Amino acid sequence: CVLASASPEGRPHAVSVLYAAQGTTLYVHTFRDTRKARNVAANPHVAVCVPVRRLPVGPAMAVQFQGRAEIVEHDDPEIARLIEGGALKKILVDGALDDPRGCFLRIVPDGRVSTYGIGMPIRQVLRDPLSAMGSVSLTSDT
């Protein structure tokens, strides 16, 4: 996916990251000295875009949302449980947990997730791309 954050001065930064999803929460492994981690430490507001390729040509479908990110240490009990259960295996490269600079970003969407082309026939997306936008509420009261 692409993770967008902003510096304390409001300068945007977007970067491709590997992520693991647990329910609606995303986890990213990174190092504290990266721009994304420094930005999250100063400003927890982020945006995420997950491209979904359904065809080799044409527009990429997508899921996108704004949310809050926080830095979580390797020894956090929830992180330890997820690691032990194998839920974070696909985002951990060899030795990642041994580096003292390492941490995780826990990203929780705000109440709404926007979509493009998800849940509708490809033919409809190609014929009328402007009607391919949608959104889903993550809260039960909306």
Overall description:
The chain is an alpha+beta fold and 142 residues long. Helices cover 15% and strands 42% of the residues. Strand 1 and strand 2 form a beta hairpin. The protein is globular. It starts with a strand and ends in a 5-residue tail after the last strand.
Look at the structure and give the mean pLDDT. 91
Strand segment tally: 8
What would the principal axes of the Cα set say about the shape? globular
Strand % is 35-45%
CA radius of gyration is 17 Å
Distance between the termini: 26 Å
Q: Which structural class should the secondary elements be placed in?
A: alpha+beta
Largest sheet: 8 strands, antiparallel
Task: Kindly state the percentage of residues in helix.
Answer: 10-25%
- What order do the SSEs take from the amino end to the carboxyl end, as H and E? EEEEHEEHEHE
Topology:
Layout: E1 2-6, E2 12-16, E3 20-22, E4 25-31, H1 35-42, E5 45-52, E6 61-72, H2 77-84, E7 102-116, H3 122-127, E8 133-137
Antiparallel strand pairs: 1-2, 1-5, 3-4, 4-7, 5-6, 6-7, 7-8
Main features:
single chain; about 140 residues; alpha+beta; eight-stranded antiparallel beta sheet; 3 helices; about 40% strand; globular
In short:
Helix content is 15%, strand content 42%. By secondary structure, it is an alpha+beta fold.
